[in-house]
Amino acid sequence: MLAIVSAIASTPRSPVGITESRNIVSLHWPSLTADRRQRDLDSLASGETIDVLVIGGGITGAGVALDAASRGLSTVLVEQSDLASGTSSYSSGLVHGGLRYLASRQINVAVESATERGILMERTAPHLVRSLPMLMPDLADIPAKRRRLARLGFQAGDLLRASVRTNKSLLPAPRRISGAEAKLLFPTVRADSGLLSFDGQLEDDCRLVIAVARTAAAYGAKILPRVTARWIAGDGAQVRDELTGLETRINARSVVNATGVWAGKLEPGVRLRARRGSHIIVPTSTLRDPRAALVVPVDGTFHELVSVLPQSDGTTYIGTTDVLVDDIGARVQPTADDVDFLLATANKALEVALTRDDVVGQFAGLRPVTIDDEGVEVDLSRKHQISIGDTGALTIVGGKLTTYRKMAEEAVDKAVEIAGIWAADCQTRALPLVGAASRDRLAEIKAPQRLIDRYGVEAEQLVALAADNKDLAAPVVAGSPVTRAELVFGVQNELAMTPEDLVDRRTRLGLVDGQRAEALEVATSLLAHAV
Ligand SMILES: Cc1cc2nc3c(=O)[nH]c(=O)nc-3n(C[C@H](O)[C@H](O)[C@H](O)COP(=O)(O)OP(=O)(O)OC[C@H]3O[C@@H](n4cnc5c(N)ncnc54)[C@H](O)[C@@H]3O)c2cc1C
User: Fold this and answer.
1) Residue 291: CB partners within 8 Å, gap ≥ 6?
2) ipTM of the predicted structure?
3) Which residues line ligand 1 (CB under 6 A)?
4) Tell me, what CATH number does 507's domain have?
5) Is position 3 within any domain?
6) What sequence ranges are listed for the domain Alpha-glycerophosphate oxidase C-terminal (predicted)?
């Protein structure tokens, strides 16, 4: 247990350079750049003791950094690679309303999910989360009784939405639809009828992480990618700058280990295994441009589902699998079996027969599981776990992108309690992320909708970049909507430091195998000029 180090009065901060009026965020959000990273890193050499050191730059670490910094705590985040380079860039991108937890009677988890979905959609990130129509077709292998149960489940999900006061205009009530209406939404679906419901869909999981990290920086957090924690303790960590190889000790009143499935490497008492969740990517045109997602029960029950999820860039993700893996390596890939399983399950509900030839990309992420005292596997992707280990650091693992804010609130509450730091109450429930504005304000922005969905109010800056330099209006690769201006913006504002950062995480060009090499070439050349 940590000793009480000090009692420090903190007050909630205002972000640098931001003003709000009529619920509209104006002025420019501060940029995260390589220069700023270097200055922030240099400033730690004095050996000052900060309040909160966060290890890991996925959604959990970024969320903790934002929560701590906005309470007025001095905060540093270190990430061994790029922001969002772990599991947070390999999700399905859904902002769940908690329906699946209702089915397993985990009411608290369901309420938490539904509440956080509402906060993201209505307050903190309306630009990044849209309402997604989801069609569950009535397939022949689903008995009528199960269909009735499914409908009751969706109705309960709608009651949950109402109980946490998320606006019905954003997430309309579920209803049965005819085969004709189903085909209007999903032209290649094979069904005479189905159930239509609504949930939240992220424009891009990486963009959420970047937005949270930049917002944390606006509140004073030092965000340091390519800095690895070599070991941690309750009062700091030994870190290595991956760009120079130099090592430094960072002294901190509290340390939060948010390294996802790799948490056990820094905190040996945290024993994790992982399950691989794979997605394949097909061109949306192969499915004749659906306007809804498709949800396909794997075996006629609703325990396991495969979702067909159209994205805004002309691709569709199909996922996921759930397979125990032996090795928690740095990067996992879908196996041939995963690909065949996803194709076969999706094809049950489709009039077109997708084959391996239709697959233009694939990716996989790891869900953490732990073994409880009775030897039973516990799925941490439903509910996160917070623990204090032998090192004295706090570890937070599991949970979901959807609930990152609440997870961060709990982690920081616990961290300050243990460290004996006085901190203001959590501020993040009503704190807009970079780019956020009311939906009315977003509708006024003069920019392509795709840019507004990805950058919110900052879309205007991308339009201005392309207006100043016509070359930047050109697509990075032919046939993709992503422009060169987005790459430049990534370098100038979002701490993209390598071509891979730009192609794999500031944009998602790299997910499509056939365009990755060309996109990397363009990114390399633009980076050289930007430097
Ligand atoms: C297939 C799949 C689909 C999913 N779909 C959804 C979904 O639709 N909706 C949803 O809400 N959630 C979803 N999730 C869950 C969600 O993606 C995860 O809960 C979340 O991304 C985990 O974030 P994290 O920050 O804890 O971990 P990570 O994103 O893995 O971040 C951990 C970071 O720590 C860094 N790190 C590790 N060791 C060190 C070190 N020593 N020093 C410095 N840095 C270090 C890593 O590089 C990494 O960037 C899905 C998960 C999977 C696997």
Assistant:
1) 133, 184, 185, 186, 310
2) 0.99
3) 55-61, 78-81, 85-88, 90-94, 96, 228-229, 258-260, 262, 266, 277, 320, 365-367, 381, 399-402
4) 1.10.8.870
5) no
6) 426-525
